[in-house]
Specification:
This protein has 339 residues and is of the alpha/beta class. The protein is built from 15 helices and 11 strands. β3 and β4 form a beta hairpin.
């Protein structure tokens, strides 16, 4: 092995060792004709299509399931999840929607499993890092947040993950210390997360400060300004601008070689679907006030706010949410194909 590395110094020792290991795993999985490999976590099930794609070195994109159970009403949640998977396929990649079902970590779901998560809605537990072990022990279901999706994607060997928006520092966090586990996960787990920016209900300046403290690169795709989920601008700068999937892939390869954790890519909502800033901000302010008045806290804050904002905008925010997720899925598939 040492001689082989010396013959190919341009690869870099760490990157080449990882590549050789992945190639061996792919070979073993293809030989065995199975979606499990002895080196994988024993709690993890990889769907056969996803396993075959990983074994063959084809692009795979992770997708979250909190969006399905907690982010949208039924049946739009199921319809959107299936549309997002189709968008990934249309760009030449394999989708791997991630969830916890019957106490098993799932990388890749069937249409029936997506329907189950959507129809059960908020009765499905919202699963972040802290919740995973208990859900497994109880053989329960969980809709995975950004943090949990990153963990399971990394276990499965999936490097790119598309979502709508990440969690972050909530408004009023100087008093409540309400900070999403998504930010901590980005600092430790080597997965590229492509989103439309932190959710607009958050304290965006403090979210950026937290990410900076944790050493998480915040990359703007085609922009030098942080997009604010429903809108393309926020008045805040990102750490760097990238203009092609190839450049994103090169940056993430270097990030992995250095073992620096995850990378956040902020892809602005398409201009045709962006909301008028004053209108969405007014809806957010009203929803936040109602949330405080009703003493809603913890895991219930984000689902309440997203649903209420959709009501206040006559469903326009939900439509924008769907379009930005589709946009992120396409970019994720294109980037995964370059890795």
């Amino acid at each position: 092995m040492e001689e082989e590395i010396k013959k190919r110094p341009e690869e870099g020792g760490l990157h080449f060792l990882e590549q050789m290991n992945q190639e061996q795993i792919r070979h073993d999985m293809l030989e065995a004709g199975t979606h499990r490999h002895p080196s994988l976590n024993p709690h993890l099930d990889i769907a056969p299509e996803v396993a075959a794609a990983l074994a063959a070195g084809k692009p795979v994109v992770a997708l979250e399931s909190t969006l399905i159970s907690h982010g949208m009403p039924y049946p739009q949640n199921v319809e959107t999840a299936l549309r997002v998977e189709a968008a990934v396929r249309a760009c030449g990649a394999v989708p791997a929607t991630i969830a916890i079902l019957d106490g098993r970590l799932k990388a890749g779901l069937s249409a029936q499993e997506i329907e189950h998560l959507g129809s059960m809605g908020r009765s499905i537990a919202k699963a972040s890092r802290r919740d995973m072990a208990l859900l497994l022990a109880r053989k329960a279901d969980g809709a995975c947040t950004v943090a949990a999706t990153m963990i399971i994607a990394a276990m499965a060997g999936i490097k790119v993950f598309a979502t709508g928006g990440i969690g972050g520092v909530h408004r009023g966090a100087t008093e409540t210390l309400d900070i999403s586990a998504d930010l901590e996960e980005l600092s430790r787990t080597p997965v590229m997360v492509i989103c439309a920016g932190p959710k607009a209900i958050l304290d965006l300046p403090l979210t950026l400060e937290y990410l900076e403290t944790k050493g998480v690169p915040v990359i703007g795709y085609g922009t030098s300004e942080l997009p604010a989920f429903y809108t393309r601008t926020s008045g805040l700068s990102v750490d760097g601008r990238v203009d092609s999937p190839q450049e994103l892939a090169a940056a993430f390869r270097a990030q992995c070689d250095l073992q620096l954790g995850g990378m956040l890519v902020c892809n602005p909502i398409p201009e045709a679907y962006a909301m008028e800033p004053a209108r969405i901000q007014n809806a957010i302010e009203q929803a936040l006030a109602e949330c405080k008045a009703q003493d809603i806290h913890g895991k219930e804050i984000t689902p309440f706010l997203l649903a209420r904002i959709s009501e206040l905008t006559g469903g326009d925010s939900l439509s924008a949410n769907i379009e930005l997720i589709l946009n992120n899925a396409r970019l994720a598939a294109q980037t995964a194909a370059c890795l």
